[in-house]
């Protein structure tokens, strides 16, 4: 079972994000371009989940695991590199000779994985299927089959590392035990220069004030009381359907764990509700494939900051419908009659065409037209329909402004979301605001255009059919 962290273990409540902010700053000291990897691993551990680091050798994966262990006070740490020659004794402990003498098949687990709270297992997929199958129960249930019985394990979190993820059935089942699937790449050019400037050797002397059992219990209790913003559930369901359409399988168990880690993230920052912005954690939770993670990130950026039912793509179509109607009414012509009911002609309005020899005697064709005029009732109807659209657009503008304020508050307190993702969300919100202002200006111009149409006196009192356009709702 997961290490028991009940409220009876502590008289205190969760201290809040500042406690974690200081801890993260200390843990990241001396690391180059490993902020995201370390924070995802710590968040997973706080939610009692596991992390898989996927990347080439020499990218500080083991160092990340050792630093994670320093975040927890009074815990046992276990580390092992697996190969195809690894035997169970190396992970689970040697067989007990005294137990064998009594016809019991038991292991001495003290000092080995079943006795550890934080563990790092390098090249996790290189072990044979027997070891991987034994690890399945240990990782998921926190129990180990030792002889004829099962023993509870104090395991908080395992950091696994691998160069590649196999696609066999056992490998997929084992992969599903790791909630955070974090690609690790070599440092960038700028990061490389910073890496070369570091003192020789890895800085292991990192001084941190680790989280004790009481603090972790308080955070776990706070996470249980965190609710989901309604939009979060909607987006999770939509993403699940999208993943199915992309032939990317995500197990029901993983979706449940994703919600738990979202609640933990919110609670750790002192919030009682999971926000839509917390969904920036999802790419690392749904797939081990870096390309799929980028696609999920793009999918989220297309939706974050957007009202569920007042979709932005409707707004240009509404404006375009009014602009097209205005153009048609401006260019419409009517025959011009005088007071006696006869066509009124002017030299400019007189046009004649004489048929050629094949047409026989020529026929004079005469037309007289003027720009169509509109009654006040007609113009009032058009302006009224635009005013209704402007009102709905103002509602959306207010909703967008609320989302911007919400995002700004989230961004200021965020511990876990990658800054690059937050910058893209901010850019999307700014672009939505600019787009909305442009569409509003165009709609106001169309309104002025309808008001400037030539008047027909007296007003016949005839109202036109409404301009057809997509319905705007903000409900």
Automatic annotation (TrEMBL):
SMART domains reported for this sequence: AAA (SM00382)
Gene3D superfamilies, per the entry: P-loop containing nucleotide triphosphate hydrolases
Pfam families in alphabetical order: AAA_lid_8, bpMoxR
Origin superkingdom: Bacteria
Coiled coil: none
Domain spans labelled AAA+ ATPase: 47-188
Protein name: AAA domain-containing protein
Organism: Azoarcus taiwanensis
